[in-house]
Amino acid sequence: MKIAIIGTGYVGLTTAVVLAYLNHEVAAVDKDTHKLKRLHEGKSPIHEPGIQTLLDEVGYTIRFTPSVAEVVPEAELILIAVGTPPKKNGEADTRHVEQAAREVAQVCHPNRHYTLVVKSTVPIGTNLRVAEVVDEVFATRGIQGNVSVASNPEFLQEGLALQGAFYPDRIVVGAHCDDAIDALRRLYQPLLEQTFDPPSTFPRPETYHLPPMMTTDPSSAEMLKYAANTFLALKISFINEIAGLCEKVGADVTEVARGIGLDTRIGHRFLQAGLGWGGSCYPKDTAALLGVAAQWEYAMPITEAARAVNFRQREVIVEKLRDAFKTCCGEKNAMQGKTVGILGLAFKPNTDDVRSAPALDIIRCLVAAGASVRAHDPIAMPNAEKDLQDLMALDRTTVDFQEDVYRLSHGADALVLVTEWDIYHRLELRRLAKQMRTPILIDGRNVYSPHEAREAGFHYVGVGR
Ligand code: UDX
Fold first, then answer.
1. Ligand 1 centre and the CA of 115: distance in Å?
2. Among residues 31, 38, 41, 37, which one has the least CA distance to residue 66?
3. Which of 107, 218, 406, 444 could anchor a disulfide with 151, C-beta 3.0 to 4.6 Å?
4. Tens of pLDDT, residues 57-73
5. Cα separation values, 251 from 242, 245, 256, 270, 321, Å
6. What is the C-alpha to C-alpha distance for residues 465 and 448, in angstroms, rounded to an integer?
7. What residues contact residue 96 under an 8 Å CB cut-off, 6+ apart?
8. 238 in ligand 1 pocket by Cβ < 6 Å?
9. What is the rounded distance in angstroms from the CA atom of residue 17 to the CA atom of residue 434?
10. pLDDT grade, residue 396 (50/70/90)?
11. Helix (H) or strand (E) holding 417
């Protein structure tokens, strides 16, 4: 099929590469000339495991262009995958989605049928609005266009985006008309039936079952995306709330999570207590859901609590550090003049994304309390530096970014493990503890066993144990 994708962010680019791999004829539109330049050079503008290999393999078949007019008229299916950034009040801003729909409608042939698919995460009712926008443009053009609008939410997990795209749990389509559903079924046929030869970098998991394609109305599809993300967010917040109580009563949250996860109704995943969630989705989508609820004057105390618990976790970690300094150094103003090493800046491993990353809030808090900060991340340091620009503008040395964990820990007073990157699972704890001024390890992701860390000489503090 001939596909045009508007937007080449995480969702747009992953979708483009996967659909090209599945032998569709793909064109991808983006206004960002910097991104396009990289894509024309065959380089991925985002960090995502496996994406560069696939771009090398099929990237040359994808037409990357800044022009909607160049590719949309001949396309059968147009996917909108532009950003919906949060507005000041938390609601998702759908301006770019509407603008994309407008531009599409301006160049559609009057005599052809198109399926216009919204993949971006959008507030409930946006698909209806997109259909209105298209009709408005057709009215001004004085034509009777033929566009079916459908919702097809993505469930992309950064760091696992391609794995999830080749082997989805489900495909959701929200549409009122059969021709849109039919077009999307044809688009995803190779995934639904798993008829493609798996790429060598993403072999098909042995236990993988064919994914269902669920069809529903557009509003339910939009709602379902928010509900899925909010549910996962609150699952994590729930275990973090339990973790706090575990610390009080002397229980170990990792044991509790193991035990409750054995109940198949609950399951093991997304029960890792720690610093909580960050990233571009959960913070934004839970806020957007509350924004929708507010418009309907509907209270959502569970969603509000999930957010409150999540952001409290960042303060909890700083408190743990303060307490550890008091215990180990016995000083009143425990943070002043201390050197703290932050391990991990990305909001989770395998991505360079620092949006709403706990590490950034923790760094700001430490700097405000008078500590010196050293920071390490395998790939997210440049993005973190950009985000912390205001702090760095005051003093370039406020955060000392270090390429090597062992150099970072030399003479430091404490380490805070924020992101559970693989390399942090294999640290030589004994060596680290020896070269620090005070060997304190605040393990914000429960990567190490308390026993192992203490044996190595650390004053160890995890979460909920
Ligand atoms: C999420 C959803 O998983 C995806 O379906 C949706 O489309 C976009 O939002 P993503 O933000 O990439 O994807 O990350 P995810 O893997 O879900 O993790 C989100 C955050 O939760 C991370 O900060 C992670 O560290 C944290 N997390 C996850 C926990 O703290 N504990 C857990 O048990 C799992």
1. 30
2. 31
3. 218
4. 999 999 999 999 999 99
5. 10, 8, 8, 19, 20
6. 11
7. 7, 82, 83, 84, 120
8. no
9. 47
10. confident
11. strand 414-417
User: How many Å lie between the centroid of ligand 1 and the Cα of residue 24?
Assistant: 30
CA–CA dist 248, 226 (Å, integer)? 33
Q: Whose CA is nearest to atom 7 of ligand 1?
A: 155
Give the residue, out of 277, 285, 347, with the most ligand 1 atoms within 8 A of its beta carbon, to mutate for a pocket test: 277
Task: Return the H-helix or E-strand segment holding 431.
Answer: helix 429-435
Is residue 374 lining ligand 1, measured as CB closer than 6 Å? no
Distance 135 CA to ligand 1 centre (A): 37
Please check the confidence at residue 333 and state whether its pLDDT lies above 80: no
By most ligand atoms within 8 Å of CB, the mutation choice from 222, 275, 282 for ligand 1 is 282
CA 149 to chain centre: 26
Place of tokens 């990792």: 254
Ligand 1 mean position, distance from CA 229 (Å): 8
Give the model's pLDDT for residue 332.
72
For 142-181, write each residue's pLDDT tens digit.
Answer: 999 999 999 999 999 999 999 999 999 999 999 999 999 9
Q: What is the length of the chain? A: 465
Q: CB–CB of 102/72 below 8 Å?
A: no
Euclidean distance between CA atoms 335 and 1, whole angstroms: 60
Name the active-site residue from 281, 328, 329, 365: 281
**Distance separating alpha carbons of residues 220 and 172, to the nearest angstrom:** 10
- Respond yes or no: is residue 281 known to be catalytic: yes
Spatial neighbors of 249 by CB under 8 A, at least 6 apart, are: none
SS3 state at 63? strand
Burial class (CB within 10 angstroms; exposed 0-12, middle 13-18, buried 19+) of 249: exposed
CA 263 to ligand 1 center in whole angstroms: 21
**pLDDT mean across residues, the chain:** 96
| Strand blocks (E) in 197-243 | 213-216
| Atom 25 of ligand 1, residue of closest alpha carbon | 348
